[in-house]
Design brief:
The chain is mostly beta strands. It contains 6 helices and 24 strands.
Length: 491
């Protein structure tokens, strides 16, 4: 596997964009020209690549809701392998341009495709794509550290070191052993000769202290209306992410998910390709079918041979009887004032221990806030009059009653107009909840630390965690109109 070109781009939500580092490999480009023949498309200059990449990622022309090059229905984006359509004398399509983004950085590369350009080979058949992504992930770890964050001075220092690092790990555009790149957490060494053959997708071996980290995260969404004519909706989606630092060419690991005795079976289960075997009954439960009580309810065992990098072992959905926080939101308008009444109640089955919990109340298509006379029974209320926004910080616990209220009046008599939204007109308004509950899942699903089995020469340290997160958690004003879904919420 070789790389024709590599780019590292910094940006702040699409603004202040610049290429911080780029490298082209002329020997690889010569090979690409010979392989592609008449289909060859040269790599354009940096500014052209930057503009095409930002357009494809949706980070340019933010004021335009439709960009034909990106949004046309004939154009099918297949992230992270992007198409860059080059105009001018070197007209053609650069493919596959691989791009990953984290924080302020976009890392992109153009791997050499050692196959005929037409018909285009499927991505799954191209080893250069998986190894190119592994190279970018290693570069990302090198530049940002294992935590994914680095200050500007530290980033500049790492970027200055990058040419020397690439000379060692990617001479002449061919990675020797990805994803080493100076990452402190994982050391990779050439595979020793032995009875087991190292697979092509595993580009190195771990040597050092054995650690297996299994993180279970559940995300809950909700649309609550407070109106008998509209059905409240909610759904739960879970993911299990693993990072296995275990010695051996093909070490075997087994992770087991368990449910409480009265827990609803997991549904719509998808697994990573590294899972070696699976009971077929695990994959048959679907949220589309009516639950008849006969579905497999665990334990769910996933044996696998892990890759070096962190990966998503599996994902699932779960049907839970109630959302974690029930809300009521009522607005009445009198004399250019809004009367606000809010009640939030934490369900008794939910652990009363948050990492954070906030309720945001935005108001659109009105003048700026004037006098805000609103009281809360618990927590702290912050007002942003420029954004016409109330932020109710509930902290890390609800009170013993598990119920909090907000009451008051808001006048909109500011000198300028506030923010607009085409949906939220008149009394159409919502509360959006943001919360995170550590060491809990709504489904009750968990990974027991003692149930993780590792078949390796060294006994590893096992680390497990679980958490519940909110996403798109809305409570709509019951006295106004609101968007209503006719079916189940889909993730």
């Amino acid at each position: 596997m070789s790389v024709r070109a590599l780019w590292i781009i910094s940006h702040e939500k699409g603004d202040n964009v610049s290429i911080r580092f780029s490298r082209r490999f002329s020997t690889v480009e010569h090979r690409a020209k010979r392989l592609a023949g008449s289909w060859y498309v040269a790599v354009p200059d940096e500014n052209t690549v930057l503009q095409l990449l930002l357009t494809e990622l949706g980070l340019s022309d933010s004021n335009k809701p439709y960009v034909a090059l990106r949004d046309d229905c004939l154009h099918c984006q297949r992230s992270p392998a992007l198409e860059l359509r080059v105009d001018g004398p070197a007209k053609g399509v650069l493919w596959p341009v691989l791009a990953i983004s984290q924080g302020p950085l976009i890392l992109a590369c153009l791997p050499l495709v050692d196959a005929p350009a037409e018909p285009r080979p499927p991505l799954s058949s191209l080893l250069s794509v998986s190894q190119g992504l592994t190279l970018l992930a290693g570069l990302q770890t090198f530049l940002l550290g294992s935590g994914g964050k680095l200050d500007s001075e530290g980033l500049a220092s790492r970027l200055a070191m990058l040419p020397a690092v690439l000379l060692q790990v990617c001479p002449l555009g061919t990675p020797l052993d990805v994803p080493l790149l100076g990452a402190p957490a994982t050391n990779t060494v050439p595979a020793p000769a032995g009875s087991q053959k190292q697979p092509a997708w595993k580009t190195g071996l771990h040597r050092g202290r054995a650690v297996v980290n299994v993180a279970l995260a559940e995300t809950v969404r909700s649309m609550q209306y407070g109106n008998r004519s509209r059905q409240d909706l909610w759904d739960v989606f879970g993911t299990v992410t693993c990072k296995c630092e275990v010695e051996g060419v093909l070490p075997n690991v087994m992770v087991t998910l368990t449910l409480p005795p009265n827990g609803s079976p997991l549904q719509d289960i998808l697994v990573h390709p590294c899972v070696t075997s699976l009971d077929s009954t695990i994959l048959t439960a679907s949220s589309v079918d009516n639950y008849d009580g006969s579905a497999f309810s665990g334990p769910y065992k996933f044996p696998f041979s892990p890759p070096l990098e962190p990966f998503r072992l599996c994902s699932y959905t779960s049907q839970v009887p109630v959302p974690p926080i029930l809300g009521s939101y009522q607005l009445r308008e009198e004399d250019n004032q809004l009367h606000v009444s809010v009640t939030l109640k934490l369900h008794e089955s939910v652990k009363n221990s948050f990492e954070y919990c906030e309720a945001h109340l935005p108001f659109f298509n009105r003048d700026q806030m004037g006098v805000v006379d609103v009281k809360v029974s618990f927590g702290q209320l912050d007002t942003s009059k420029e954004k016409n926004l109330l932020v109710w910080a509930l902290g890390q616990k609800f009170p013993k009653s598990r119920e909090v209220t907000m009451e008051g009046k808001i006048s909109f008599s500011g000198p300028t107009a506030g923010p607009t939204d085409p949906l939220c007109t008149d009394l159409t308004a919502y509360i959006k909840l943001y919360f995170k509950v550590p060491d809990m899942t709504l489904s009750g699903c968990c990974v027991d630390q003692h149930s993780v089995q590792v078949y390796s020469s060294a006994k590893p340290r096992i680390v497990t965690s679980r958490e519940l997160l909110s996403k798109e958690y809305f409570i709509w004003n019951s006295t106004g109109t609101a968007p209503v879904s006719s079916g189940q919420m889909m993730l």
